[in-house]
Write a structure and sequence with these properties.
This protein is an all-alpha fold and 271 residues long. It contains 9 helices and 2 strands; from the N terminus they run ααααααααββα.
Length: 271
């Protein structure tokens, strides 16, 4: 960092330094998590000859990878809200925007892609150990059967990660729990929106509607029937749901989260 960099309102160099510091702060916890996963699967190999996480369709790897990312996202700004660490946060030689961008890059982009590489390597190592133990060897985990499905999974994760990062910037106490609660409220609101459309079209109570973004049923009958909505209406509703989920929600989370970080810094500086 030099004099020219310090004079800039936004500096990629400062963002890179913040990202490095964030990564180093989170690294011990991540290494402990990887060690626990390896230990659990190693015990499974010793006991059964198979790695627990490599059995079946390997989806348990995906759950742990993305779930861990959501948890990290939910505590992205824990230092900003901490009474002891908040002063160090304020004194960091970076703007609110740079601090927020560094958090987004780490949890929305860097973590899932680097984490996927680590999980693939760990899954491959465990598969090799299965062969040594005399078993055929389990399936090595991959992010998806093809590039498109892998990016689709990342896109869904990114939406939730942005939500929880914004929640971390908003809630001082129990940010993960409160972010999950606000997400539940959003789901209920969207459910009510779809139900209101169904009611407006006078759909019988034993008819269910299924969309690509959400699945809603009237009375939990456990069966899906053809929607009485016209093809055009169904397509329009799907477009609305997807625009909200993948367009409006991410933009709102990014903007709202940044404003909360900016507000926090301004208030602390005044005090």
């Amino acid at each position: 960092m030099n004099t020219t960099t310090l004079k800039k309102r936004f500096s990629f160099e400062r963002v890179a330094l913040l990202l490095k510091n964030r990564t180093l702060d989170d690294l011990p916890s991540l290494l402990i998590g990887v060690g626990i996963l390896f230990g659990v699967n190693l015990l499974s190999i010793i006991g059964t000859g198979y790695a627990l996480f490599n059995r079946g369709n390997n989806q348990i790897w995906t759950v742990f990878l993305l779930g861990s990312g959501i948890v990290l996202s939910g505590y992205a700004f824990r230092e900003m809200h901490d009474e002891k660490a908040s002063l160090d946060w304020i004194l960091l030689p970076a703007t609110s925007l740079e601090k927020y961008v560094a958090a987004l890059v780490e949890y929305v982009v860097l973590y899932p892609f680097v984490g996927a590489l680590v999980v693939m390597g760990l899954s491959g190592l465990l598969s090799a150990l299965e062969l040594v133990a005399g078993s055929p060897g389990g399936h090595i985990w991959t992010p998806g059967p093809d590039f498109g499905s892998a990016m689709s999974t990342w896109g869904n994760y990114a939406v939730f990660s942005l939500w929880f990062v914004a929640g971390s910037a908003t809630f001082r106490r129990k940010p993960l729990l409160k972010s999950a609660g606000s997400l539940l409220v959003y789901v209920l609101v969207m459910t009510g929106f779809v139900f209101s459309i169904l009611v407006a079209h006078r759909i019988p109570r034993d008819i269910a509607f299924d969309s690509s973004a959400y699945s809603f049923m009237w009375n939990g009958a456990g069966r899906y029937m053809a929607s009485p909505l016209s093809g055009g209406a169904v397509a329009a509703l799907n477009i609305i749901l997807n625009v909200v989920l993948y367009g409006i929600v991410p933009i709102f989370c990014i903007g709202y989260g940044y404003l909360r970080v900016e507000e926090k810094e301004v208030r602390d500086e005044v005090q």
